[in-house]
Structures
1.
Amino acid sequence: MTAGEAVARFLDAQLVYLRERRTNVENRGVTVVTTSGALVTLQLAFIAVAREEALAAPLALRLMVGASLLCFLLATAYGLRVNMPAPWREADVRSFRPHLSAEHWFKDEQVALQAIAIVQLRVLEDSTRVFAVKVRHLRLAFLCELVGMTLLAASVFALFLLL
């Protein structure tokens, strides 16, 4: 195996790995959306049940409840952003067109492997950039959800202390 073949195999393995991680991150984004939606539903149900107490609650407590709702909304927005289609460049057909001409068709296999490796490197660079944005949004979604849950737990605890 030549050094070029080793690089081509490595690039191919990296692309497979990155595609699998993208699927994993996007699934986690869906989980954040689902969890935040369920928590907002529970929070609104709790507010409806404890309506009189909630209305008589101090302003700080009502602001905590409102802030937790906002955090869940932000978590949902970031979770949806993780799953929004992004320009994810794959192999560019134009870069292979010259290699399909009659003069290149019977050239050494190494020439084709090098062309493929160059295209794979471009795809890997672009995919890594897009993936980093998805991961950043997923982290923000998790952070918003964590803050929202903390505020929700604190507000429920404070409301029970007032009862």
2.
Amino acid sequence: MKKAILTSFILLSLIGNAKAQGEDNNKYFDGLYFGVSIGSQNIFGGAHIDDLDLLAQKNTFVLEVYPGFRKQLFNDRMMIGFELQFGFAAGDMTTYNPRYQWEVRYENSFQHGYGLSAGVVLGTKKNTLVYTYGRATNRSFDITFTEDTGFTHHQKDGQYFLRYGLGIERVIREKLNVSLMVGGIYVDFGDLVTSQKVNDAIDVNLGLVYQF
């Protein structure tokens, strides 16, 4: 009887230890993933008029999807990753050019880019990720100039810039995580003369991530 109890105790201990090791070995931020986010992002566009880049800017709603791949390293406590982004924005804007008395309309509904991320995995269950990210992003605008006479002409504009910031991601159920990202933008117009500076308004995005 004592041998049976002892054997049962040893078996239960081994099963419990194996289960605990299995839980410790869970990698919640490793491999292929697919994310979707909604939030407010800093949208800006430029229209070239003679030697001036006439800018318009606003913070607006953006829906973004981002497939990617990431890897946990160093006892699964560090993460590095790469991703693609495809965004759908309410990016239409209107401004006025006092020099020629033109109304200028900027139309944008899509953006795309790629990015890198790196972070640390926290918690005894390794189920919380805190990370920093950088995303090279492109937005294209269809621009329409409308003169006071009603005559219109058109132009295209592309904006290339860097989005950067901090994020936190936490497991809410198996293979499904929730994320929050807060950041800003960096843009360099080079030698172009612009009508205003781009305000570094804050981007805020809330997302869900499915980890395959």
3.
Amino acid sequence: MTSHVDLVIAARLARVRAEAERKRQEREEFAARRAKGLPKRHAAKLRALADRGRSLAPPDSLSNETLAASGAQ
């Protein structure tokens, strides 16, 4: 015969396992949504830059010999 204490412990363990499984599932779903949204956000950023006539490439005028913005040499 199973004691009351054993039943309470088993119920608590079942709740903890169910909660852990629920959280794991939520993390998986969030990761999937994030993975899908990241390329969309990147594409939107590139479209916005293209609309302004800009790109992510650095300008040709940059060199290692230009002065720092602070004026340090």
4.
Amino acid sequence: MISAHITCYNDANMKILTTVGPELISYLPPDVKEGEISFVTTAETSAGFPVTCPSSPLMFFWEGIDDAFGIKGYSYCILQGGQVTKDWGETKMRTSVLVEDISLTNNRLYTVEVMASNYAGVYSEAINASILVFGHAPTLTGKFPRITRTGNTFDVSWNDVFSVRPELQPSYTVTLGSEEGFTDIASHKHLQEQRYVFDVSYTGKDVYTIITCTYITGTSNVIRGRVTVS
């Protein structure tokens, strides 16, 4: 805080005293050591990256930025591959943003940067966080599941049926029936491995098989058909 005391004299040596201030002076930027940006999404990769679909609006918020003399406002920008997707814009005192006016490219990593300014007009360093935009479903390779039987034990495997990105945490639903549309042999959800081993009394040679592969983003693909037990 700075105050100024000013004394003014006239020709008769009479004086008047006035005081200006106090004024807040700060040369230090807002403190961002605890600053953190979070995205509003329910999906994350296995490495902890948040994931969103290209058609979804981009929502994020931040916290942990502080200034001893008070934050005046915030601004943000969005980058992709070092190129500006959305230039710096102010949010005033809002600490959350919903962005609907940009087109997100599939299979790209976007980075959000946020800065704060204080009442002295000093800007902080930028904090940042990244999000993966991904809307593709798992793809089929053209190969079929395999089923082997040892006694009453069935071993169903489909490790080369889907082409997947492991970081998107694919899970599998398996439905097996003695006839098309039946589920009388087995039905199991949320399998993490590409294999399902179980005991069953079914003695037929053909199994009608449906296997669905789903990413953590909700996109999925399915293979269905008759598989001969070996």
